[in-house]
Amino acid sequence: MIHPYNYVSPEQALALIKSGNRIFVQGSACTPLFLLRELAKQKHRLLNVEVISITLQGHVEIAEPGYENSFHINSLFVSEPIRQAVKEGRADFIPAFLSDIPDMIKTVLPVDVALVQVSPPDAHGYCSLGLSVDVARTAVNYAKYVIAQINPQMPRTLGDAMIHTDRFTAMVFHDEPLPQVDYGAKVSDIELKVGRNVASLIEDGSTLQVGIGTIPDAVLKALHNHKNLGLHTEMFSDGIIPLFEKDIINNTKKRIHPNKIVTAFALGTNKLYNYVNDNPAIAFLDIDYVNDPHVIRRNPKVVAINSAVEVDVTGQICADSIGTYQYSGIGGQMDFMRGAALSEGGKPIIAITSRTNKGVPRIVPFLQQGAGVVTTRGHIHYVVSEYGVAYLYGKNLRQRAHALIEIAHPDDRELLTKQCYERFKQFL
Question: How is domain 10-173 classified at the CATH fold level?
């Protein structure tokens, strides 16, 4: 029942946004697409509205040509809906550790209006930020005005997600399906080999950080003989459900938040959304806590599993761009790579296929011109491909090159060896 609350039309709510404002838009599966569609209709009255966000999902009309004078997207993580706008110069990218973004909102990126999508109010008047607490929690706390899209299809998640309706300046009721992504259906045989190699490094009782995507799902598929795993991760998808149901992930060995999954957001299918709904075993917490390396390190045997666009032979990790083409962002990779390295018995892992789907090598002599280094060669410990594991911690540049060539695609090894000889003046 929605009548006890003072819901307004989207036109009334969005009238709060003025030219020159900075607005925050919640992301991932909580992207308020209805409000964004309605906002696009108001482009003629608005000029120079700055839009900050992390990972948006779905069709974002204000990122299309013709809207750039009204809305300037200044994204902290480049996701699919805005890649073309960034490439064409109609939008911009702010490099940032995910754990730093709440502080940026409090200091250098103050928000005039926050747009969020939440669950309906409960009996006490509390809504839930649902599947995307991450940086949205801080945006809601610090924005001058908050516009909430109330959606009955939004799961009610627990932790830092709860917000009383008193905090909302305006509420708009709109019932629509949430964006879905099924990563598990896309896992290839090569990625499954990578997953098995990563799984061989994971000890029973480890605390995992696994992201979303085909390689993280491949790793999860290879963990069915493990015991007593924990999960402290910035995000997760459907792949964790079978492991949780089989008591493989039970969080019993975690030192902080034992018996609970800790995350900041989730993205997957409706199966996942139903699973997290009102689930007391899953805590959705603020990203500046979840991704704090000093928090992460407190659990023993933290295994951080991340991926890369390319890795050079010295161990530099490019994970956010393809040359100068901005593909994603820094995200939480460094937060967890460092946190895992500092954890007692921890293992920071970069997991890749040796080549892309188009046959382009991922292990290369030099990163492409313009490529961003997300994880430095000083932070790298393990690189894993379908051909094995390269352990780089404490290795010199020649030793690193040798280890990485051994897990490169066999057809790339001869040229890599030649290029490394020219660089290091010595056979590997």
Answer: Glutaconate Coenzyme A-transferase (3.40.1080)
The pLDDT score that the predictor gives to residue 4 is 62
Q: What's the average model confidence in pLDDT over 198-217?
A: 94
The answer to whether 199 and 305 have CB atoms below 8 angstroms apart is no
Average of per-residue pLDDT values in the chain = 96
Return the CATH fold of 184-424.
Answer: Glutaconate Coenzyme A-transferase (3.40.1080)
Write out the residue limits of the CATH 3.40.1080.20 domain(s) in the chain: 184-424
pTM beyond 0.90, yes or no: yes
Comparing 428 with 105, the larger pLDDT belongs to 105
- Residues annotated as catalytic (active site), given as ranges: 234
